[in-house]
Amino acid sequence: MRHELFEFLTTDLQFIRGVGPVLAARFNDVLGGRRVLDFLLHTPAYIRARGVTENISTATAGDVVTVPLLVKSHKQGGVFRGRRRPTQIICNDKMGNGVVIQFFNVNFLDYWLKKLPIGEWRMVSGKLDRGARPTINHPDFIEEMQNADKIPAIQAIYPAGEGLTQKTFSNVRDQIFNALPDKLVGESDSNVTEFFDALRHVHYPTGADDLLPNSTYMAKLAYWELLAHQSAIVISRRNRNDVRNRRAPRPKKYDLMGKFYATIPFELTGAQTRTLREIFDDLARDVPMMRLVQGDVGSGKTIVALAAAVKMAESGAQTALLAPTDTLAQQHFAKIKPVCDKMGIVCDILTGRDKGAPRREKLISLRSGRTKIIVGTHALFSDDVEYKDLGLVIVDEQHRFGVSQREALRAKGANPDLLALSATPIPRTLSMTIYGDMDVSIINEKPAGRLPIITTKLPIARTNDLIARLKLQIDAGAKVFWVCPLVEESETSDMTAVNARYTQLQKIFPTAGLVHGQMDKKQRDAVMAKFADDNSDMKILVATTVIEVGIDVPRATIIVIENAERFGLAALHQLRGRVGRGNAQSYCILLYGNNISEVGLKRLDVLTETDDGFAIAEQDLIMRGTGELLGTRQSGWINYHFVDYARHRDLFKLAASAARDMDAPDSWTRDLMFIFDRGVTISA
């Protein structure tokens, strides 16, 4: 990137006026980073129109209105007979209609009363409720009449998190885009200016259509993002086959595979055996392996990964297995270590929890080569982690790790082999363009004895009946997941929030647990670990989609997915895979809302009729509609910002073709790879 623009894009958000370190940390949780660039790539989800009216009687309950109001009187609230009453500001609109503004938060009453002085006009904007009188609770905007233009007629609404208001988002956005023109002065590459112009249009939409995947500017951004990814794929393939990256095949030092097959208490499926044959052939080649193993939930990818690690240990080299969460790393280690102990292979785990002397001992064992298999999180590529001979890197749920993160781990060895695992089935129509730098193996069989999960759909009106049935199952020893799509109630949605559902269920199941993405990670991991513990009294876990990957509870036999019609099919299939991991019969109940469409019902029917993840992924691609709250830009396979799999299939092909036709990436393409974190090591 150009130097001054590069510095600006990598600026920490805490240095934006009004942010600071606390809000920057909250932005990091939502954006997945805290740079200016991370903010620019986090675009609005929808718009909120704030039409001005002078006659409140023409507005409908639930509308967001902007109305000039004359403040008539203040009626300060307080506690009366044990109940807290709100403070009320009594107003009239220009037609003389009465309007009440209410505030329930007593901490800022003096501030609000000063903002609404008696006898003066104010432009007020907020959601209208109609009870005995038209009411606006906690208005979004209150401005003096001469500043009424500060209230946006069209407000961009960003996906937010705890402690981040829409005003904070708009403040940061305005400062960034006000500063950008100075950073682009003298920029001669029209692609660069066009890129930031497209971003500006998306961050300042003039209507709902501007945020649709096929709008002019969203499609441009999607194409450029795909070009960055496809260029990285082409470069990666060229680097992989570069003569400078060739290596001598590793000689066999120990006989371990025979012990491995004798140690595991079951026969591998035909698909597992075929996949291992493909992996072993790759390991014998003189170029590094780049292989993706796709397998449905419960297909046995972990044992295939362990077999690959044992094969690497036969040559005396080390394997690092990288998991996306601490919980998943612990679960992998619990499965792998007993097998390794029986074979005499030293296996260990390294996560952010390891501190002091225990961590130093693990690092010494790794550096000496004694530890042959190490399981862990991002801690595996920390600066102080050294390997004697890292031969194989295994990345679980590979779409959750950026290219730069995978490269950082591979840099710990001399051209190590890479094996990626994914439980997210990818439609065959897209797999070559998404993972064009990798060879693909598919495990399309499940181990013998696994019962199919019985999936049913149920209207949300029957929730109380369902809870009564769950109580019987829990009393009989079952463990239950209950998944909700939101953390807090939303003005624009009728979905039950996870906190509200947890409060209800805890009255019936006092030991119920709660996890969601806004919780502290250590606290979330502790709750998940307690639920997974067979001896724990926690029998029901209320959660958001944070449980989609990273928790293995064989005793969990029931999962309830609330407002299932709001999820993509691929996400539903992933969630369903949290049960059915033991030998007992498991069940998935899809609770759907009152306003479900015919298409929504058809999508749920797909889940009830098949458990073939690849067939479901194809249907998801075909059926996903623009109105899906959680599916519009859902990208479960790669963390795209603008790409929509269902609507941008033609762009995949165009970007792949353009990247293949390039002899070498030009300056603009390198800029794109930086912008979208698709950087790869580019050979000189």
Task: Give an overview of the whole structure.
The structure is a single chain. With 684 residues, the protein is an alpha/beta fold. Helix content is 38%, strand content 18%. Strand 7 and strand 8 form a beta hairpin. The chain is built from 22 helices and 23 strands.
Short description:
The protein has 684 residues and is α/β, with parallel strands linked by helices. The strands form five sheets. A seven-stranded parallel sheet has the order 13-14-12-15-16-11-17, with helices on both faces. A six-stranded parallel sheet has the order 18-23-22-19-21-20, with helices on both faces. The two termini are 18 Å apart.
Keywords:
globular; six-stranded parallel sheet; 684 residues; 22 helices; seven-stranded parallel sheet; alpha/beta
Radius of gyration: 28 Å
Shape: globular
> What is the CA–CA distance across the termini?
18 Å
Helix content: 25-40%
Could you tell me the number of beta strands?
23
Please identify the structural class as seen in this structure: alpha/beta
